[in-house]
Amino acid sequence: MSMILYHTPASPFGRKVVVMLHETDLIEQVEVEIVQQTPLNPNRDVLDTNPAGKIPALRLADGTCLHDSRVILDYLDTLHARTPLIPRQGPERWRRLTLASLCDAMMEAAVQIRYESFMRPPGMQWKLWLDNQQEKIARALDYFEREAIAELEGEFDVASLGMACLLGYLDFRIPTWAWRSDCPRIAAWYARTGERPSLQATRP
User: Fold this and answer.
1) Which of 30, 90, 116, 141 is most solvent-facing, going by the fewest CB within 10 Å?
2) What range(s) does the GST N-terminal domain occupy (predicted)?
3) How far apart are CA 65 and CA 85, in angstroms?
4) DSSP letter string over 24-72?
């Protein structure tokens, strides 16, 4: 194994990378090291590799460290012989990356909800801020439901991968949110897509 991936299974960002490894048959070429950390308790191995302390982080054979899941996915997508999960060029590339970025924005909001509601003492939680984060996710899901469902239903690529990991995180961390009733087309898509072996193998 020539690469080491630092990640936590509960993170939707780390899960994206592991799903990519499964989808591209690269999983045997990467040592997956599970790291337990929070913003209040960073991991020294991760800090030594990535000064920002963020995971996922991918250390290459030459010691180079790649971090931010989007950077890691782009790199891994150059290492396999299957159909690229990120289109190589043209308008399709920018469209898929933009949809993937929207999924990342929803993930970031969901993680912030988790931190605010789980790590901050109840008397110090900011309800308006929590509501705004959830509204951000709801707006983006509505956009996919109305404007991008056909693209999700096409090839499984960087955008659909991101959406699947986002929805898995919502079910895991905010199980009381009945998002399926507001997004029936996405719910139907996710019911099918969630059966992919890569997603079954990486369920948080």
Assistant:
1) 90
2) 1-84
3) 22
4) TT-GGGEEEEE---BTTB--HHHHHH-TT--S-EEE-TTS-EEESHHHH
Q: What is the pLDDT of residue 116?
A: 84
Report the chain (204 residues): mean pLDDT per 10 consecutive residues: 88 97 96 78 67 86 92 97 95 97 98 86 83 97 98 96 98 95 98 98 94
Per the CB < 8 A criterion, the answer to whether 178 and 137 are in contact is no
pLDDT at residue 38 in the model: 62
Look up residue 87 and give its amino acid: P
Nearest-angstrom CA–CA distance, 37 and 30 = 21
The whole-angstrom separation of Cα 187 and Cα 180 is 5
pLDDT of residue 1: 60
Q: What is the CATH number of domain 88-195?
A: 1.20.1050.10
* Phi, psi for 73 (deg, rounded to 5): -60, -45
Of the CA atoms within 13 Å of residue 101, those in its CB half-sphere come to: 7
